[in-house]
Amino acid sequence: MTTETLPSTHPAGRSAVSEDGATTTTSPPRAAARTRLKTEGIYLWFLVPTLVLFTLAITVPAILGIFYSFTNFIGFGEWKFIGLTNYIAVFSDPAVLSSYLFTFGFAIVTVIIVNVIAFLLAVGLTSQIRVKTGLRAVFVIPMVISGIVIAYVFNFLFSNSLPAFATSIGFGPLQESILANPDLAWLAIVLVAAWQSIPGTLLIYIAGLLSIPGEVYEASAIDGAKPLRQLWSVTLPLVAGYVVINTILGFKNFLNVYDVIVGLTNGGPGTATRSIAMTIFTGFTGGDYAYQMANATIFFIIAVLISVLQLRLTRGRAAIA
Questions:
Q1: How far apart are CA 292 and CA 90, in angstroms?
Q2: Among 44, 55, 75, 119, which is least packed, fewest CB within 10 Å?
């Protein structure tokens, strides 16, 4: 027998009678597509408030800032176009170049310290040890404290407690605050920034380590691999993607360091610990608005290039996985 198709009695579809007498109704593809598009359109309206706020608070000020970087605007009053003068001056300004050198050096050293310590802690907190859940909670505490609060607390420790302790035991190098030493002040900033950043990096490494199947370690143990060999030949290759992510994210975050420096040294002694962000902000309040906007534009381009590099590397790791 053949299937008999009856005329549609419902505006939304067609009815058909099969061999056993059952009647089925199918919706037209166009009607389903229209419904889907209508629903997605409703969802898009929820993005409007966020887009408006983002545009007014970030996009518009950024465009205006880039525009003023080609002028002699000081933040108020009249201005005129001066072309690339500000950009040329930035590349020949010793103070600006010094801030870039300090910031990139600080970021590189801190990224290495943070990733090494966080990875070792993650290995320990995912191993078979007691109270590891409680220890994870303890190590995450620095992440929830404001950076400026942490900086002021460590400022007191470096300026008062540590010199007093060093004096009591007769240790000369630390009897004076290292924050007042141009050669050592950066070490204090690295220490505080690392202490605050390790928890976030630690959580990412813990997630990576927990994603490794236990069978991999069992197989390596059967092959005679010891714990150190497993760490080097099994664990590290399998969490390489997480290492890349933590390295690039950390590097970008440390390039923007500001609050920790304000709370510890305020850029001193002199300008020994002045970062790029501090140099830009100080220029805004000191009448160098257009000049520092040129500096901020250059810094923005550097951040974009680092972000593109991050996307390429992480995408490659995802493809391999």
A1: 8
A2: 44
Q: Is 0.85 topped by the overall pTM?
A: no
Helix, strand, coil content of the chain in percent (nearest 5): 70, 5, 25
Answer yes or no: are the C-beta atoms of 4 and 17 closer than 8 Å. yes
Q: Name residues whose C-beta falls within 8 Å of residue 184's C-beta, 6 or more positions apart in sequence.
A: 178
Q: Over the stretch 306-315, which tens digit does the pLDDT of each residue have?
A: 888 877 876 6
Contacts of residue 14, Cβ cutoff 8 Å, sequence gap at least 6: 5, 8, 25, 26, 28
pLDDT band at 153 (very low <50, low <70, confident <90, very high): very high
Instruction: Identify the pLDDT of residue 277.
Output: 92
Q: Which residue, 33, 5, 31, is CA-closest to 18?
A: 5
What are the backbone dihedrals phi and psi of residue 80, each rounded to the nearest 5 degrees, phi first?
-150, 155
Contacts of 297 (CB under 8 A, 6+ apart): 65, 66, 69, 87
SS3 46: coil
The size of the chain, in residues, is 321
CA 222 to chain CA centroid, nearest Å: 39
CB 209 within 8 A of CB 126: yes
